[in-house]
Amino acid sequence: MLRILYKTLKTGTVTANYPASPELAPEGFRGKPEISADKCTFCGACASVCPPGVIRIKEEPGATSLSLYICGCIFCGRCEEVCQPGAIALSRDYELASKTKDDLIAVIRRKK
Q1: 32 near 90, Cβ under 8 Å?
Q2: What is the pTM of this model?
Q3: Fold for domain 26-111?
């Protein structure tokens, strides 16, 4: 028993100090998709390739909107691959906890 205690004290802390100092996800990590309203052309390419169908384009009187429901996203990266203007990019953000689903909906609008 004392041998185990000695070994533990000698080794020290081997775990991360999370959440006090969160670690950055590795390069190439597919995290939260982010939409740039300035670059989006509302072409619909991202919505047509989204496997779970969480990207939706809606034509409204006087405006067009693009909605991304992050709570259903499988982080496959297809939307980022097909977006010609580069309006969608997968970030390295992995902390997506929320109390409501409404917090996990990204909407951009453009007036006609």
Answers
A1: yes
A2: 0.77
A3: Alpha-Beta Plaits (3.30.70)
